[in-house]
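Why run this: before we spend reagent on co-expression, it is cheaper to look at a predicted model of the complex and decide which construct boundaries make sense. The entries below are exactly what would go into the expression plan.
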Amino acid sequence: MRSFLLPRDGLVLFLNDLSKKLELIAPVMMEGEPVFVTWSGEKLALDSENPLASPVEFFLPQEEVLFRYVQYSGRYTFEEEEPRPRMIFGMRPCDLKAVEVLDRIFGSDHLYVDRRRSTVIAVLNCITPGEGCFCAQLGIGPGSEEGYDLLFTEVEDGYLVEPGSPAGTLVLRDYADLFTEARPHHLAEKKMKLDMAEEAVRRLGPQISIPLIEEAIEEAPWEEIGERCLRCGGCSFVCPVCHCFNVVDRGVPDGERLRCRDSCIFSGFARMANDINPRMSQGERLRNWYKNKFVYLPERTGLVGCVGCGRCSRVCLGPIDRKGLLKEVGI
Amino acid sequence: MEKILTTCPYCGCGCGMFLHVEDGQVVGSSPSTSHPLSRGRLCVKGWLAHDFIHHPDRLRSPLIRDDDRQIKATWEDALSLVSRRMKEIMETFGPDSLAVLTSAKGTNEENYLLMKLARAVLKTNNVDHVARLCHAPSVTGLSAALGSGAMTNPHRSLISADVVLVTGSNTTEQHPLAASCIMEAKSRGAKLIVVDPRTTGIARLADLHLVPEVGSDVAWTNGMVKVIIDEGLFDQEFIEKRTEGFGLLEEAVSGYTPELVEKISGIPAVDLRRAAVAFGSAERGSIVYAMGTTQHANGTENVLALANLALVTGNLGREGTGIYPLRGHQNVQGACDMGALPDLYPGYQPVSDAGVREKFEKAWGASLPHRPGLTAMEIMEAAEEGRVRGIYISGENPMLSYPDQDRVRKSLEFLAVAEIFPTETTALADVVLPVASFAEKDGTFTSTERRVQRVRKAIDPVGGSRSEGEVAVELMNRLGLESGYSRPEEVMEEIARLVPIYGGIGYPRLGAGGIFWPCPDSGHPATEILHQDSFSIGRARFHPTAHQDLKRDEEYPFVLITGRCLFHFHTGTMTRRTPLLEREKPRPKIEINPRDAEKICIGCGRMVVVESKDHRLTVEAEIIPDVPPKTVFMPFHFREAPANLLTSQRLDPRSKIPALKRTPVRITRV
Ligand code: SF4
Ligand code: SF4
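The model came back. Tokens follow.
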């Protein structure tokens, strides 16, 4: 596919115009930290760490109303939200990989599929990865190879832009005047920068590989680790791949049926009506969390349930270094 | 989608969090990574803090009582009724027949306004809030000993402690962010000593867990102090230079040999010695406590004893040392700071001080009452006896836990309640005013570590609700004190002018992470650690304390401890409307030791009757070794089995806190 160059000052022009046609989601600095929000001209936070709240929430919201019910009329009003046309700009390769896993799980969920279809994903390759990242060790980042609509890489002259889907190509077509054809040295520069980034991730991040993790899961002192878990749920809530939900009715007699996020680290998740719990201790639940990501999900989807973003370690309330699991077992 | 940085509405840790807003609805939340305490983390309640905001149960319109029904009304009608009735009662029975209960869930600005409403408009000092039920002994005790009732150091200071002593605090569940600092200290190599009758999460992590008889705190603390003195582990220099009354202390603790303490508290003498030696030899020792220490008939003594322990070892005024009274509500510190207390103006300036009173009279352009007012429990008692006739309650649910609500209701002429959800208390009200949640208003909260931080409006008030502050201003205006505030920020400006410890606090300075008070002026860098070079009272004071005999009642052989659990907050108005939290803990259970369970022949899941002297209830049993024999535990969140009905109403004579942690009960099979 052809690739293009967008000069540095062209980026804001490009996004500005796009943001008039669709909802543009992009990372900006809010009170000193990067967050994904609807962009309306704020300064972009492109060289900071990947925001803690993943943009995956635009496909799988933390909570959504499925329908409302009113008792007296016996009526139900269904909230089929018209999916709005969006572009997520600045999604990182790890989060894109998470979307790929979710596609295989929610492929027949029309709410998910509708949102997914109406959203253009513009990925930004990571040339300055964060400290806790280990995407390279899992073969996922710091560069994306497929699955995006548009792929941006920062280069000396601006941004190298590569469309990866018809939707991406279509977006670029409207702005032909902003882009020029990329030159081979831009592609070479991209490769060099990503190699360096990959090297940095491998050097600074934990020395992990899937077989080592599988081994560690079998040997980790789960009960002791479980004591240190404060049951905040953060590791699941922040994980771009975690996707379990609960369906609840909120309010009587009138109210709403919700689909809201859930986590297998909570004891209520698997508790049976008779109060028996197949995963009785917090340690067992944490073990299950790992098993799901590194054993069950690969079996079911062919993809690992962890993308190496390191977020679970950043949010952990107990000092449980998720990526340091190997250290826990002394490998 | 917008993301608005604000402060968690639950516990006193005061985590920084973003609310995710789409089309005027709060649809999610996430932790702030730049907040100095949160650093990207929240506990489960924080992660789900947005969940109750749009709940269909939210009160959306004012209600006015018509016989036994409450009927929808306009704001105009509701407010004019409240102001008319308040005025009538004031004129007929005198100002002290009115009382205002403010809310530890409200902002500083709202507490200030409600306090001003009580004092400057209703002309009564009968103003109080829920702190009475949790940390009044800390305010009384620590002020007497150190000159300030607040937490001496920020949570993060715990990370550099060498020994952390935790008592009466289920830290991992109630103050998870504080617990995470303790755990961080531990992984740095610090020793953790937990003194708690229950084997809580933090007790499981401890290097040394001492299990005392409930209510024997003074005894074991004095015992530790004695060992420290006998072993020469006290800080001579600190005691000489910065304290007074050491002689009295030495004498008072001299009888508390570990052997005697073992008899009183059941803590083996060797363990007590080990704990004392570990704490006494630490370069930096910290003491963390919460309601297990304060909610006793001798709560103030318990606090004083702990203060002695910190003073004797010189563990104050430095990083890694200090006393940490963990507060339960996100703004209980702020409500105290704002003078929602019957005897203190904002900033702990005494009502009895004529100079202070004059300052406020001048600033507010109103004459102010001289006599200190009644505390929360006294207000309820006075209501029962007909001395208080009209109460305005903002954001509190005191009726769930008040033993004789019927009598209170019958003798009250007028009750107005401002709330976000219907509660036991709104059900009794003559007027119910629907108010905004934390997501719908601007203001500040002050966390338990004295960190004043911003609360930011993410969405407009839900339904027809208004903020508690707006309502207070409206009432002031109607009752004849033209206040002229248009924004919460102006209220903070007034607070800064009148309250020395808040002198330098203003919204522009409150970025992520806020500012610690005392902060006397806008150039002041704020005070993270109190008592660094001196105490505000000159020298800190040792207060001798003595153990009071604990007798087990033959007829009521069990001791009931009440408390909270990880997944719920207070009376559950918000958490029980958060589906995930409710699923985790959907119903109340009483925790009973397996040995006792065997004796009364019950198994898990069986219903038992729990009886105290005046009340009884039925609840499911959970057989669990986390409680010691003859001691049972029950959370107080559930209206299905309101544990606080059972608890004793005996008040601590100094701070007037009820003794909620040691109630004799009897347990039988259903
Ligand atoms: S983030 Fe850490 S403390 Fe929280 S649930 Fe996960 S493992 Fe437990
Ligand atoms: S620790 Fe306290 S302030 Fe922090 S998220 Fe939990 S409840 Fe909120």
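The pocket of iron/sulfur cluster (ligand 2) is lined by residues B 8, 10-11, 13-15, 42-43, 45-46, 176-177 (CB under 6 Å). The longest helix of chain A spans residues 184-204. Bring this page to Monday's planning discussion.
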